[in-house]
Amino acid sequence: MIKNLGRRQFMGTLSGAAAGVGLASAARPGGSPILAGTVEEKPALLGGKPLRTKPFPGWPVIEDNERRGMREALDSGHWNRGPLVRRFEGEWGRMLDVRYAIATSSGTAALYTCLHALDVGPGDEVIVPPYTFVASINVVLLHHALPVFVDTDRRTFQIDAQEIESAVTENTRCIMPVHLGGNMADLDTILAIGSRRGIPILEDACQSHLGEWRGRKSGTLGDLGCFSFQASKNLNSGEGGVITTGNPDLAALCASFHNAGRPYRATDDGDLVTGDAVGFSYARNGDNRRLTEFQGAMLLEQLSRLEEQTRRREANAKYLTSQLKEVPGIAPAEEYEGCTLNGYHLYMFRYDPEGFAGLPRSRFLEALEAEGVPCGGGYDPLNREPFLKHTMESRGFQRIYGERRIREWNERNQCPENDRLCREAVWLFQTQLLADRGDMDEIAAAVRKVRKHASELA
């Protein structure tokens, strides 16, 4: 079941300051009266004055605490994985209420490490969405497994959980839902399939910092969860990632693999224990996917703002949705009933040219950008990327799977709803949601202005 954005329980817990940002008054279908006149003005793309010229908040946020944290790491002389990284792992685990957290060099490294811990390898299949960043697919291919694409629910931009069971075969080793843009995939359905079929669930929460499903944080409901701290993310250390799990065996496997295969054991209180005494002794094959102390320091300092920034994004997104849903041709992304908090790494909506006098999406994006509202068209169909064909034709994949299975795999990976979404999607970005309520009024007014003059722009 899909719910309206305004029904989210989390909104009732906002502080007075955050409520002032996003909940002070109900949205008017016509938008801000102050901006009503600007909608009538000549579009910027046709030589008129842009509706807004003020920049949106910059990213990343850099204040004195970041400088102190970096100085602490520098002066310590201990620059590889050490006490600052371990402190961050502890803080992240406490914030998400999950027993084990293992910091990695990137979100991709976290996903790759988790697939290794789940023993994904040649001959296996991993169920994935086609609407995601390429890393979600690359990590599967790097294990010489097959990514099996399940179509998208266009209303939510998430994997269509109702289609997953029919994609399961005897070769399915893992289901990897992606909580795209901060929103949540339908975990009630996905977790039930995993439990019933005995298939592990790996949550790709790389874009969903502090997202929630029925009050529990993203990345903590499946067998394993992964987050990214790449430069655009809501928690940012340039590059970085973290693995979360409540399973001590999986935690020890992940910790060992990411640190060159050194032996680890997981304690009941959430620690992962190894030591210098192990020397050059190894428990298994592994890799170097460790996080540095500089990144650990940066994450600790950025973490101090994450909850407040999340509240601000949530409030602004709710207010913006209350305006945009009144505009014909604009359909803001919906949420499943179980989503009690959207992390809003992206603000996404679908664009229908029929509501804009046939104005093509490319021209809509150009016009909106000219009015001072940064925007993008989102992902292309990942299941149609040419590199997949090249990969399947490679010597290694041909040896593992053969022509017949690869041909059958290609026939299974048709995603018509996702193809349509990729023609409709419009993205705004998380930094725009860190602005003030008046900036949300200007975004909505810019959309109305483009619609008002759509015939001229076409």
Overview of the molecule:
This protein is an alpha+beta fold. The protein folds into two domains: 2-60 and 305-378 and 421-457, Alpha-Beta Complex (Aspartate Aminotransferase, domain 1), CATH 3.90.1150; 64-300, Type I PLP-dependent aspartate aminotransferase-like (Major domain) (Aspartate Aminotransferase, domain 2, 3-Layer(aba) Sandwich). 38% of the residues lie in helices and 14% in strands. A four-stranded mixed β-sheet has the order 2-12-11-8, sandwiched between helices. Strands 4-3-7 form a three-stranded parallel β-sheet, with helices on one face. A three-stranded antiparallel β-sheet has the order 10-9-17, with no helix packed on it. Helix 4 (83-96) runs parallel beside helix 9. It starts with a strand and ends with a helix.
The total beta strand count reads: 19
Strands in their spatial order, largest beta sheet: 2-12-11-8
CATH topology of the largest domain: Aspartate Aminotransferase, domain 2
Report the biggest beta sheet as strand number plus sense, adding barrel if it closes: 4 strands, mixed
* The first-level CATH class name of the largest domain: Alpha Beta
Number of helices: 15
Number of domains: 2
Radius of gyration: 23 Å
Gross morphology is globular
Strand content: 5-15%
Which CATH-level-2 architecture of the largest domain?
A: 3-Layer(aba) Sandwich
